[in-house]
Structures are given as C-alpha cells and as structure tokens.
Amino acid sequence: MQSPARTISIVAMSEGAVHKIEADALGSRPLRYYDFFMAAFVAILLLSNLIGAAKLSTLGGFTFGAGILFFPLGYVIGDVLTEVYGYSRARRCVWAGFVAMLFMALMSWVVVALPPAAGWPDQKAYESVFGSTWRIVFASLCAFWAGEFANSFVLARMKLLTQGKHLWMRTIGSTIVGQGVDSLLFYPLAFLGTWTHAQVLTVMVTNWAMKVGWEAVLTPVTYLVVNFLKRREGLDVYDAGTNFTPFRTRL
Asked: Does 223 fall in a domain?
C-alpha cells in the first residue's frame, strides 16, 4: 500500500486523479504505457542510426545527415519518459538502447565481414551502408550514452526546481544540454583529424542547433503526449529522493 508520506499532492483532472509522487514510491505499480515507450525509444534510436546515418541530403543548399530528421525524436521520447515515469525508468531505457546499439554494431560487423556468395553483386553497397568504422561506432555509443543521461538528469532536476511547472522550459533546456553533450562528444571523436577543425566545429554547432530546433517545434506534441500519459497512468513522478548515478540498474 502506498505510504501517504510519499505522496506530494493530488490534482484532480478531467479523466481522474493524477497523483504526484516521489519516484521510489512507485515500486512495482503496473504502468500501462511504459513498455510501449521503451520499445519506441529503442526502435527510433536503432533506425535513425542504421537507416539515416549513412545518407547525406541537401535541401535549399543546406547539407545534413538524413538521420537528423528522426534522431531527435528519441530525445522527445526520453523527455516524456523522464517527465511521466521518472529518471530511474528513463535510465533503464537508456541502457536498453545502449545495449541494442552494441548488438547492432556487432551484427553489422559480422554480416559485412561474412564472405559473399559467388555471383552476389551487392557486397560493396552493403559495406558502404552498414560498414561503419570502429571510430564512428565508438563515438556514437559514447555520445548517445552521455547525452541521454545528461538530458534526463537536467529535466528531472528542473522539474523539482520548477515544481512541475513550465514543461516547455524543461524539455528545451534539457535538450540544449543533452544534445550539446552528444554533439561535443560525437563529432570530435568521430571526425577530428579526418575533417578540419573548422568543419568539425561548423557541423557540430549546426546539427546541435537543428536538433534543439526540432525539440522546440515538437513542444506542442510533447505537451499532448505527456498530459495524456499522466491522465491515463494517474501519476506524475518527481525525483526528490532519486539516486542519479547512471550505473544503477535497480528501480
């Protein structure tokens, strides 16, 4: 039975009561939509890296990696997970995504390295699309891990500081930090020494700005999803007593 001391307050909503509780008071309480959002988070992460990362596109004279159109959706879902379910459950999703990316990198390396059958003409194309270098894979893993944890940490702490108000400020502010950490790690680790310093800096800043811009554009969608989930789950989680270490796997 939930202890009254762990409940911060109860706010009446049109579809029921939304209980504002501390994260560690959730325990094993059933969550209707958490698993679906974890699956969506991992799927978007893998697909944006697997399908979008290898293609450069040009629109209006501006060249960018095609994956940038979809990768920020992972940060939006990360914001939703932290805002609705708390940092601990968002942390589990980050680790699930990290392990999935490791497996994707391993599987890509094995499949590309396997000798092609006689007469199969597409080995070069396969290598071009799926044969990422170890350096880019390493940079991507490090940047994702650090960026997502920074994003979730900042959003959870800002929620406490603002007492749950100004969701737009929290989502955009956490994305500025999270995507900043992601970009600061990925582009130098992946391309410094291959690209000029000016190229690394230009692409890093440009892509960071585009990702933050996407977050701002999607803010109304974030509001709709967050409000829907809070009403349906009947809870609003605050991380007042949460251990924010990234290495804790227990809820």
From this structure: yes
